[in-house]
Amino acid sequence: GAVVSQHPSWVICKSGTSVKIECRSLDFQATTMFWYRQFPKQSLMLMATSNEGSKATYEQGVEKDKFLINHASLTLSTLTVTSAHPEDSSFYICSAKDVGGDNQPQHFGDGTRLSIL
Amino acid sequence: GQNIDQPTEMTATEGAIVQINCTYQTSGFNGLFWYQQHAGEAPTFLSYNVLDGLEEKGRFSSFLSRSKGYSYLLLKELQMKDSASYLCAVMDSNYQLIWGAGTKLIIKP
Questions:
Q1: A70-98: pLDDT as tens digits
Q2: Sign (positive/negative) of CA torsion B56, B33, B6, B23?
Q3: Which residues of B fall within a CB distance of 8 Å from A44?
């Protein structure tokens, strides 16, 4: 149980392109989903918390107009990296928490490796 | 401020036992999580402790002492596939996860 699917797993695109990443909870409902970024050999960095039916909460320093988050249902959140540039190249990982309680563990998708040329 | 400390890197031998420590200082406490992350992959959930004591799950055990702000992950009968980073994360009073930087565990034959 507690499977999170993230798609695509790998994206290579030109600078200026917008890229959409999907995160789905397959066998549970997730009121809250999280988007992380991880640069090579560094720790996870929380970008934003996505809440179903409401606006996402962004961490300090994360541009909300550049990283658009939509959490339209209890099983789907999307992150769109708008007008991506080489410095946005990173490993993006989503996680989801079951509606069962605030102290439920986060379950992670497999991540999306984004390379901007 | 909120802080999670764990060693950057540890080395152990296949078949042996290793203990990875984590100390924390957070605003409130609603549980401590351990995750495993293989290189280039997303983290996978290992354990959750909210009460003091030892939780055993197969070859992996996790211990918590809330009064000391301390936890450890114990890995027994180490296998080469256990080579990974181990992330300690604490849930604070707002149910936000505070992540440690991770401990890279290297297993040698």
A1: 988 889 999 999 999 999 999 999 999 88
A2: negative
A3: 43, 87, 99
Contacts of A91 in chain B (CB under 8 A): 40
A8 preceded by cis ω (within 30°)? yes
Q: Classify strands B103-108 and A10-13 as parallel, antiparallel or unpaired.
A: unpaired
* CB-based contact A93 B102, cutoff 8 Å: no
Q: Which residues are bridge partners to A84 per DSSP? A: none
C-alpha distances (whole Å) from A14 to each of A69, A86, B44 are 21, 9, 31
How do the residues of chain A divide into helix, strand and coil, expressed in percent and rounded to 5? 5, 50, 45
Query: What is the nearest CA distance from A110 to chain B, expressed in angstroms?
Result: 5
Specify the DSSP class assigned to residue A94.
E
Nearest-neighbour CA in chain B from A109: distance (Å)? 7
Predicted confidence (pLDDT) per residue in B59-102, tens digit? 999 999 999 999 999 999 999 999 999 999 999 988 888 999 99
Q: A108–B91: do the CB atoms touch at under 8 Å?
A: no
Rounded CA-CA distance A72/A78 in Å is 9
Q: Which of A42, A103, A108 sits opposite B43 (nearest CB)?
A: A108
State the pLDDT at residue B21. Answer: 98
Q: How far apart are CA B28 and CA A111, in angstroms?
A: 30
